[in-house]
Design a protein that fits this description.
With about 160 residues, the chain is an alpha+beta fold. Helices cover about 35% and strands about 25% of the residues. It has one domain: Alpha-Beta Plaits, CATH 3.30.70.100.
């Protein structure tokens, strides 16, 4: 990790030695019986798991629809995606965006933050405003466009 001068290896190249960060964005429909309390339990358990595996992101629940942005190192992220596809608490998972490019975290401080449906546009617009990585910018623009036209358009409206 450090050379004989205590300088992190890779620092002399002027770039931090970041592991490639992947992300996955999807929406899905909540199964019957999934209410606010159950979503609270999902988030609580997600925060514990995600902290341990270096995953961060955002979860939105509104009008019976989930929207989630997850980001992290490839291996734990792929494992989580597989778990999500096998989780009976939601169905009709629609993948909105997935990347394997090197990028910065959009939500470095959120192990899993639940955001109200009415706030999702703001959260994405905020992220777009501060995003420097062109892959993040492109992904966020695609999602915002989808918010207006796709399966997410019931979110953010009450
Ligand atoms: C909408 C939704 C979002 C979820 N988000 C996460 C998450 O961010 N992190 C996580 O570890 N589990 C999350 N889960 C739970 C996983 O699907 C799974 O139950 C959990 O990772 C434990 O998986 P395992 O039983 O295969 O170990 C979520 C479940 C749902 C329905």
């Amino acid at each position: 990790m450090f050379d004989e001068y205590g300088i992190p290896r890779g620092a002399e190249l002027g770039e931090p030695a970041l592991p490639a960060l992947h992300h996955f964005v999807y929406c899905s429909r909540a199964s019957d019986g999934i209410d606010d309390a159950e979503v609270g339990r999902i988030v609580e358990s997600a925060q514990r798991h995600n902290l341990a595996s270096g995953i961060t992101g955002v979860l939105v629940f509104g009008s019976g629809v989930f929207f989630q942005w997850i980001e992290g190192p490839a291996a734990p992220l792929q494992k989580l995606i597989a778990s999500l596809y096998g989780d009976s608490r939601h169905y009709d998972i629609v993948s909105l965006d997935q990347s394997e490019e090197e990028r910065e975290r959009l939500y470095p401080n959120w192990d899993m933050e639940r955001v109200g449906a009415e706030d999702i546009r703001l959260v994405l617009e905020d992220a777009l405003e501060s995003a420097e990585n062109k892959n993040n910018v492109a992904a966020l623009k695609r999602i915002l466009k989808q918010l207006d036209s796709g399966p997410l358009n019931s979110l953010g409206r009450s």
